[in-house]
Amino acid sequence: METSSARGRAFAAQKPTFLNVLGDLWDPQSNPNGVVNLGLAENTLMHAEMTEFINTDLQIDAHALTYGDGFSGSHRLKKAICQFVNRCFSPWTVLCPFDLAITSGVSNALECCAWALADAGDHILVGRPYFNAFKTIFGTRPGIELVEITFGTTDPFSMAAVDEYERAYAEAKANGLHVKALLLCSPHNPLGRCYSEDVLKKYMKFCSRNGLHLISDEIYALSIWENPRISDATGFKSILSLNIKEFMDPSMVHVVWGLSKDFGSTGLRIGCLISPCNRLLLEAVEGISLYNFPSSVADQIASSLLVDEKFLEQYVSTNRDRLAESYQFATDFLGSHSIPYVECNAAFFIWMNLGAAMKDRTATDKDILTRLRDTKVYIAPGTVYAAEQSGWFRMVFAHPPHVLQEGLSRMIRAIESERL
Ligand SMILES: Cc1ncc(COP(=O)(O)O)c(C=O)c1O
């Protein structure tokens, strides 16, 4: 007798492999033989400040034990997010609580876009490499497929890259695909860079010409930092800060953000979908809000945090300093071991070429991954991000030096016997 449905079995086969890592995390005292996690996109650099804020400055009231003000976030949190976004994202038009919905993390906010902007079998455009879960978020339940854009030697953040979207879109259309949206991620996971204002404007014109929605994932908005080696690097600019109606129909522009990355709090599960000119989209999100309902306790934590301007200012600037220091530490290490990497100035990632550091140039990503697994360090291979070339891996550097030291030493041990 079958103990589950066909789709149940299909879901079971998609269980993320990193879940095994989480069950055996390295700790110098309690689990020295565990796995050092430099793979999952988490920032632990500010955990002490964040837990102190929650444990000292916060009083949870009985409202947190209820369904709150409905399933798409409390009035208080919606107001707090508006205050925060109006201050930190400099929107062209001041944001008000009716312009957004709160969800249980940004993955859920993106899935809401998938459900409400496209139908099963439709496609969205996304440039390579991209955050691996986009495929799951858009595909697994809503049934939306990705059209991956390949850039070759073109810089994915350049004006010329937009032409590659144009080409891919024309080809998709010629093949009878229904393309509904373009998904941008700025600051970018995994490349750690931002799109310039001019490039964003070109993307908006492209969307306008072709009747596409523009979904802007800005989850790393505040996690930008100084990299002295690229002092002219493009900083973060929210799509909301531009005069959108000059370039495209504002009802087609949607932004997602949340606490997971900029506040090192993936476990709070607070995200939001901001769509100031598309009431129908937000109503559709209300329609499925039972599936995306944030915890009322997390809602209260976020509500207090996002209006505490003194704490925020201190937090954001210390976070940036620590990210810059950790990046420096990790890239010094890579430099001293002649491992090529791409410089960046945002988010938590270093895109590095472990394949190029191997003596055996025929070693596949799978071979390298097996070695990393043997020395118990988790670093994700570029293949999961649809990298265009093999050999590339994404390392998360947003951890204190002792964690990086342990993880990177294990990484070197993993590739050592095969080094040049
Ligand atoms: C670009 C991007 N978007 C969305 C998410 C999902 O965030 P959340 O944990 O809030 O669901 C991540 C997490 O890694 C991410 O990197």
How would you characterize this protein structure?
The protein has 420 residues and is α/β, with parallel strands linked by helices. It folds into two domains: 6-49 and 311-416, Alpha-Beta Complex (Aspartate Aminotransferase, domain 1); 61-307, Type I PLP-dependent aspartate aminotransferase-like (Major domain) (Aspartate Aminotransferase, domain 2, 3-Layer(aba) Sandwich), CATH 3.40.640.10. The protein is built from 14 helices and 13 strands. The chain has helices at 6-13, 18-22, 47-57, 75-88, 106-117, 133-139, 159-174, 197-210, 259-262, 279-287, 296-305, 309-336, 365-374, 401-416, and strands at residues 36-37, 100-103, 123-127, 145-149, 179-185, 213-217, 253-258, 271-274, 341-342, 349-353, 377-378, 380-381, 392-396. The strands form three sheets. Strands 2-8-7-6-5-3-4 form a seven-stranded mixed sheet, with helices on both faces. Strands 9-10-13-12 form a four-stranded antiparallel sheet. Strands 1-11 form a two-stranded parallel sheet. Helix 6 (133-139) links the parallel strand 3 and strand 4 (145-149). The chain is globular and about 60 Å long. The model has no long low-confidence stretch (mean pLDDT 95). Bound molecules: pyridoxal-5'-phosphate. The site of pyridoxal-5'-phosphate has 13 residues, from helix 5.
Multimeric status of the protein: single chain
Number of helices: 14
Shape descriptor reads globular
Average per-residue pLDDT, rounded, comes to 95
Concise synopsis of the structure shown:
With 420 residues, this protein is of the alpha/beta class.
